[in-house]
Amino acid sequence: MTSASVQATHVDDLFPFFLRHAKQIFPVLECKDDLRQISDLRRPPNWYPEARAIQRKIIFHSGPTNSGKTYHAIQRYLSATSGVYCGPLKLLAHEIFEKSNAAGVPCDLVTGEERLTVEPEGKQATHVSCTVEMCNVATPYEVAVIDEIQMIRDPARGWAWTRALLGLCAEEVHLCGESAAIDLVTELLYTTGEEVEVQKYERLTPISVLDRALESLDNLRPGDCIVCFSKNDIYSVSRQIEIRGLESAVIYGSLPPGTKLAQARKFNDPNDPCKILVATDAIGMGLNLSIRRIIFYSLIKPSINEKGEKELEPITTSQALQIAGRAGRFSSHFKEGEVTTMHRDDLALLKEILNRPVDPIQAAGLHPTAEQIEMFAYHLPETTLSNLIDIFVDFAQVDGQYFVCNMDDFKFSAELIQHIPLSLRVRYVFCTAPINKKQPFVCSSLLQFARQYSRNEPLTFAWLRRYIKWPLLPPKNIKDLMDLEAVHDVFDLYLWLSYRFIDMFPDSSFVRSLQKELDVIIQEGVHNITKLIKISESHKLLNLEPSGSQSRLPGASKSPARRTRGTKTGNKAAEPPSPSDKELPLASRLVQQGLLTADMLKQLQKEWLTQRPEQGKEKVGTRRKKKDPNSD
User: Fold this and answer.
1) CA dist 96 → 274, 427, 597, 603 (Å)
2) Is Cell inner membrane there in the keyword field (predicted)?
3) Second label for 245, Cα 20 to 30 Å away, from 20, 32, 221, 343?
């Protein structure tokens, strides 16, 4: 190289070319200041100008389970000229809906899957009972009730309580929940210039922790409730109770609401021979149960941490108090409650957990809106929705009183339907649909619904009947029962989407009728659950471990803080294994997690490859092509 050329060339001359290349690879560099401004979540109270325009009166009803805190708030709600009740569960929203109308106070019902109006010609009633996600922050009310306010800390749903707390446009806002939320609520509302009046309540009936564990199911008494934290334990305990000639009711989270209520009525009926309840922590709220004694079959509950890892760790004080408080309720047959454990080694740990002070809640959840994601997409048009969420979370700015809620479920749905051509707003709505990602049929149904929508093909009642292969037969084993529960969830998904895309999901009334028929079939299956368990065992469809072996930590009584950690696939004993589990290829993350089957992934890949020409018309992102699940 000549000296002249060396003098004419310098490494800095490459910088413009490097910068242009970097911006192509990392488009965020071009607009990071705009993105940082869009994702600024440091002043949530300013998002609700209607609420800020009035001076609200805030009353916090604080107390343990069965203290009457919600009762007093509801009485004020019923006496108001207009009101809204915001509950954590559909069952609770239904309960207040029925109570209001029974008391002569016209009340509508609004949940994600259902709308019921009581006034003629569909006119809006003065009162509305809704799930907290569905509350309207633009409608003025005299009184608003936000139940279970401590769920403002929930990693996934906390944003809904934050939105209701800061945004409801009501003259009086009544909050019901644990005292652990008082300090945080007071701090949040201090920024709005609103003071919090705290009313504290004591438990209406006494409750005592026994000095002796149950140790054997032979020691069960009428009114006992055995609380398990896995379906396997539910099945095992129910089977052992049946062997002893006793009848039990069963309640767990994935059962339809109608089936839960039917099992609760069976257990509560003094004339019914069923005197024992076997349940998960689903009994913690939403059901009125006449329980004398709560028996913790285990104190170890599986959970997913912020890294997506499954952990086995002791239940928290808040969880233990919520469950234990179901014993000896004021409205039940038993005026005194008792709490104990199944195993002697767990009793000391239970007492320790119940005697610990509940840690104050430190932060409230927040969630990006559709508008914010759309603005991100405007600046990053070739980025997938899942990646947009990741970038938003990375750029989000929150102060110490807030946190950004876990978006893993949203991202799961976004990746599931990523290859389907949809507008961003429609894609966002599909991804917010509440689904159980552990149910392969529900996941594949979301995919199928999105595909039909993208083709502009309405999902009619006739189409849905063919899709689920209706009519369905009563379950013959546990796997059949779980399949029926999944179909019920698919009906819920259809109904949820029908209120967002009424033209494409036009037959909600017919689907609701079909869902009620299915609920009856599931109720029949749960009524005969011990027979289903027996058949499943005989056909090796269900592998029940010895009692408590998978739900108790070794040496738990010696080291309460000890826990076992693994990946999401590492500790699957909580669910009965599928016959095809051994055949699933480990190369695929979704199959590893048990969320989709190998056949479903093959079908997805095939559809993705055939739709690639269509994708060229829509900028769907810069993500790499997924690895062939069979490449390993």
Assistant:
1) 27, 33, 40, 44
2) no
3) 343
Report the CATH architecture of 44-200: 3-Layer(aba) Sandwich (3.40)
Q: What is the spatial distance between Cα 248 and Cα 277, in angstroms, rounded to a whole number? A: 5
- Domain 458-543: which CATH class? mainly alpha
Residue 137 and residue 405: Cα distance in Å, rounded?
Answer: 20
How far apart, in whole angstroms, are the C-alpha atoms of residue 417 and residue 616? 16
Residues 6+ apart with CB under 8 A from 122: none
Give the number of C-alpha atoms closer than 13 A to the C-alpha of residue 214, restricted to the C-beta side. Answer: 21
Comparing CA positions, the residue from 620, 566, 626 lying closest to residue 596 is 626
- Across the chain, which distance is largest between two alpha carbons, in Å? 105
pLDDT in tens, 83-96: 999 999 999 999 99
What is the amino acid identity at position 104? G
Residue positions counted in the chain: 632
Query: Do 364 and 334 contact (CB within 8 A), yes or no?
Result: no
Strand intervals (E) in 186-286: 196-200, 207-209, 224-227, 248-251, 276-279
Q: Does domain 207-355 have CATH number 3.40.190.10?
A: no
pLDDT band at 571 (very low <50, low <70, confident <90, very high): very low
Rounded mean pLDDT, 316-343 = 89
Dist CA 418 CA 411 (whole Å): 10
Burial bucket for residue 239 (CB in 10 Å: 0-12, 13-18, 19+): buried
Global pTM value: 0.84
Do the two domains 44-200 and 207-355 of this chain adopt the same fold?
A: yes
The structural domains of the chain, with segments of one domain joined by +, span 44-200, 207-355, 458-543
Phi, then psi, of 433 in degrees rounded to 5: -60, 130
